[in-house]
Design a protein that fits this description.
Strand content: under 5%
CATH topology: ADP-ribosylglycohydrolase fold
Number of domains: 1
Helix content: 55-70%
Structural class: mainly alpha
CATH architecture: Orthogonal Bundle
Length: 327
């Protein structure tokens, strides 16, 4: 592979990995490891179901909010936080199968007041900001300053908490380093810096908790990432922990996909992923890379914005078109 081909393979691996981890993990979300073993022995197939009753390959809010964010960046061909918030609201108004309470609360505040962030709050330490940040990473591969700024801005629309901020930045920086050619040592460096600043994130030995609390999520994802040697093994290990398995699966898929590349994702999983989601993920990946690298990547391709037909095929709109402003 050429340098550009490897970079695209890793970028696409991160985005497809996130969607596949979401679809795989949603089946066993909120289950315990004992319950998963009793029902599946070992859960390793994308079969849908779960507490949401999903179709095989259907994704949840993790992927859908990423698509909303990525669509907003591509529509604007730049960063406008109000456009991101409008995209999230358009998604919520589409009655998605699942939406976290903190996300719902923050988006309702925006709809009512126009405020693009609340106040720092202990109850905002969920994983909803970290799970949707991948498009920011891809759009800012050549701009570390914007990576941090945009990551925190999008996070604080719904989640403003120092633990959420720190984890969102760690995952963003680690993913960026992987896409740009790093290895697991790159992730370890970012994880170690996080733990130095916030010892509560210490993940070895794994504390054994898998809730939607951002600390539990990051510990589960990092333990799975560092204790496996392939994309498939990483996702299987993480989702079989249960708990908030769609989000831990999505974030593990993001990191593992960025390390091993899209070419390492099992074909049986790719075939099961919702084909419209897969197509728009691929389109957005190319669009975000063109945005990040400009003419060096071959210019901007407006087809990467997707189509109105693509949006209607999903459970909820995800701002592949410019959303209507919030009243």
């Amino acid at each position: 592979m050429t340098g550009d081909t490897i970079l695209r393979d890793r970028a696409l691996g991160a985005y497809l990995g996130l969607a596949i981890g979401d679809a795989l993990g949603a089946t066993v979300e909120f289950m315990t490891p004992l319950e998963i073993r009793a029902m599946h022995r070992e859960h390793r197939s994308i079969v849908g179901g779960g507490w949401l009753g999903l179709r095989p390959g259907q994704v949840t809010d993790d992927t859908q909010m990423c698509l909303a964010l990525g669509g907003a960046v591509l529509v604007e061909q730049g960063w406008r936080l109000g456009g991101v918030a409008d995209a999230f609201v358009a998604w919520m108004r589409g009655r998605p199968a699942d939406i976290g309470n903190t996300c719902r609360r923050g988006l309702r505040r925006y709809m009512q007041t126009g405020e693009l962030h609340g106040k720092p709050a202990e109850e905002d330490a969920g994983n909803g900001a970290a799970m949707r940040n991948l498009p920011v990473v891809l759009a800012t591969l050549t701009d570390a300053e914007s990576l941090e700024s945009w990551s925190l801005q999008q996070a604080r629309i719904t989640h403003w908490n120092e633990l959420s901020d720190a984890a969102t930045l760690m995952l963003a920086k680690a993913t960026r380093r992987l896409v740009l050619g790093g290895d697991s040592r790159s992730v370890a460096a970012e994880a170690d810096e996080l733990v130095r600043g916030f010892p509560t994130f210490r993940y070895a030995p794994w504390p054994g908790r898998t809730s939607g609390y951002i600390v539990d999520t990051v510990q589960t994802v990092l333990e799975g990432f560092f204790s496996t040697a392939s994309f498939e093994d990483c996702l299987v290990r993480v989702v079989n922990r249960g708990g908030d398995a769609d989000t831990t699966g999505a974030l593990a898929g993001q990191l593992a996909g960025a390390l091993y590349g899209a070419s390492a994702i099992p074909e049986r999983w790719l075939k099961r992923l919702d084909p419209t989601v897969r197509a728009v993920v691929e389109q957005q990946t190319d669009g975000l890379l063109r945005f990040a690298f400009g003419r060096k990547w071959g210019g901007t391709d407006r087809s990467a914005l997707g189509s109105a037909g693509d949006a209607r095929k999903l459970d909820a709109p995800f701002a592949v078109r410019r959303p209507a402003p919030v009243a």
